[in-house]
Amino acid sequence: xxxxxTHNGRRAPADVPLDxxxxxxxxxxxxxxxxxxxxxxxxxxxxxxxxxxxxxxxGPLWQTYVDLANRYTTGDLDGLEPPGPxxxxxxxxxxxxxxxxxxxxARSELDAVPGESGPLRIDATxxxxxxxxxxxxxxxxSHSCPNQGSTLLVDGPLISSxxxxxxxxxxxxxxxxxxxxxxxxLDLDPATQGHIAVDGPFYIPESGWSEDxxxxxxxxxxxxxxxxxxxxxxxxxxxxxxxx
Length: 244
Known about the structure:
Elements: H1 2-6, H2 18-25, H3 36-47, H4 60-69, H5 87-100, H6 104-108, E1 120-124, E2 128-131, E3 136-138, E4 151-155, E5 158-162, E6 168-169, H7 176-181, E7 194-198, E8 202-205, H8 215-218, H9 234-243
Helix pairs in contact: 2-5, 3-4
């Protein structure tokens, strides 16, 4: 709702009065019983390029458009049945209840939302690695180029990697939020922008992990003291154990 009224840059979200939001939620329905605010949000997202047929084809705003536009949740993709309710139809009722007794004074006490950081480029001499609870996976392009010297590009909610030979990769395992929070392992502010040169590997937690999880919690394999991981003789030790 706030995005639909501020995406043109003329107002900041904090400048939108609560009464205006309440009025938007209580506006007349369209297309039968669909809330009018739904169409306002879809129009704003479409105008900003966050809709099918525009680029980029990912990110939270693009996904918001897809979710709001989908009214065929029963699996009737052929349109033999009339469209069902959009997710916004029920959300409007819940939002109206939340805002009913919410005051401007209470709003002023909320934590300020930080502004979006500028683009970030991370160059790692030993490569980019995706960290999970049980493994570390080197990030490779579809051409299987070396991982050493790879680059991670973060721009808002978008993230991609570039191999040393210039091949770009957008992988579901990558998350812009996780990449920025992984900067804490380098004693850097997650809001850092510009260029960072990492002399060694750069680890980023897999996107499926909680955004609040620390890198150390998600990756036991990072420990050099582990019996196998990170040692050149790992396979020899495994063979020895298998023989025993």
